[in-house]
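User: Fold this; tokens only.

Assistant: Input:
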Amino acid sequence: IFFAPLDVVLSEHDVVLPDLLYISGTRKGIVHHENIQGVPDLIIEITSPSSIERDRLIKKELYARFGVQEYWLVDLKEKHVEVLTLNEGRYDLVAVFFEQDTLSTPLFPGLALSLSHIFSTI
């Protein structure tokens, strides 16, 4: 698990700075001291009024094109997390988890994140 500021180099012309990202141990070769050179398994963006359009449209399309398996959009104001999973080159909404929910995801079978605990610490 890595967090900003850390560049993710998807290609020579596509470099992003996600809020959080996860790279599985089998893919640790893309992790370098100065940046990530390749596609993470999971990217998490924490949305804000100034970034919501970029996160929902531009970054979502870019991450799908490069094959990021899961993309989470965290809305701190509304206290929910949208979990999207890659399916045939585009993202499908798996679920929207709210503050009272326990987040689970296909990428991490058995994972159970209590969102009330996470949102209460922010």
